Amino acid sequence: MQSLSFPTGRLDRIAMGLSGLCVVHCVATAALLGLVASAGALGNPLIHEVGLTLAMVIGAYALGRGLMEHGFLMPAGIGSLGLGVMAGALSLPEGGHEAVYTIIGVTIVALGHRLNFIAAHHDF
To answer: What are phi and psi of 114, to 5 degrees?
Structure first.
């Protein structure tokens, strides 16, 4: 049986895409809830928790794998800061400022993945 292996660059792109989807989800949910009260299914806490947890797992794996491959600490450090902000957002009550902290966290993580991608594909 052959193991499933993704190149680090692909994992970073997947993680950046998930970060982008998370931002779109947060912004769209806030806009739709402001316009139509029946759009509450998009704001379901389970979607937030599962999606954020999945993004954090893939993000941590991609950042760690990149660190092992290219040896640069900065991408993983910046990405870890963003993962921490995302984890903190999970602990906040729904309807408060969790969307703002989530967007800040995924933006920082996306920056970490971008730096990880650059470090993996450039000779220094």
So the answer is: -65, -45
